[in-house]
Amino acid sequence: MRRKIVAGNWKMNGSKDLAQTLVSDVRSQAASLDNGVEVVIIPPAIYVGDVVASAGDSLSVGVQNVGQWASGAYTGEVSADMAVDQGCLYALVGHSERRQLFGETDDAVAEKVDRIIGAGLHAVLCVGETLEEREAGKAEAVVASQVKAGLAKVAADDWQRVVVAYEPVWAIGTGKTATAQDAQTMHASIRGVLSEMGAPANEICLLYGGSVKADNAAALFAEPDIDGGLIGGASLIAEDFVSICRSVPAST
Ligand code: PEP
Fold first, then answer.
1. Per-residue pLDDT for 179 more than 80?
2. For residue 252, what pLDDT is reported?
3. pLDDT digits over 46-84, tens only?
4. Is the pTM of this model over 0.90?
5. In the annotation, is 187 catalytic?
6. Is the C-beta atom of 8 inside 6 A of ligand 1?
7. Fold type of domain 5-246
8. Ligand 1 atom, smallest distance to 235 CA
């Protein structure tokens, strides 16, 4: 049975106050969830300690990025080991904002995945095509190449530490969502790529991200290869986020 996850990526939003109030609201509202979904909060790194303190045992916590090195003279970076030290279980890697705004390359993403898994975290590899790439009919090829490059260093017995989030770049923060059918087609294609790579593809959790809201989540999560979501904007409002978590069908 595959894990079902809904993860909230706060991006560079929030405050110490929000790290306490939002997390305790999500925690109390999520207590009634009975669908087996794992709820993950991914705040800015500086608030990870506050979020871990408010999260209790029912919510998991992650970081939005880690440095590609173990430690050393890398001003401003946070290592995967530091994330573990603070109580994180997950790390995002290769988010399109990091690729586009900070020049994160596929090689750097592969190094980070290696560090994340080596530290004992779960890596949430983000992949997705731009609008131009989709319109040129290259969406599946672009995503396949990001999956292959980003996961190139994963060892045979570490696949259980991998989650892939398909996030079409044109859908992130734009209010435009892939149709459930288009997202399902891409997820099935990603599963095919993982299988070609020798991964236990049917056991790997695949998330969809890109303007997921309380009113479109259920249709997306009803698709057979969509195992939950990576949520940006809607993860900053407890009711909306928990309603998205509630939209994951119970595992059978
Ligand atoms: C994201 O940043 O990963 C994301 C999916 O954002 P939004 O839900 O706001 O589109």
1. yes
2. 59
3. 999 999 999 998 999 999 999 999 999 999 999 999 999
4. yes
5. no
6. no
7. TIM Barrel (3.20.20)
8. 8
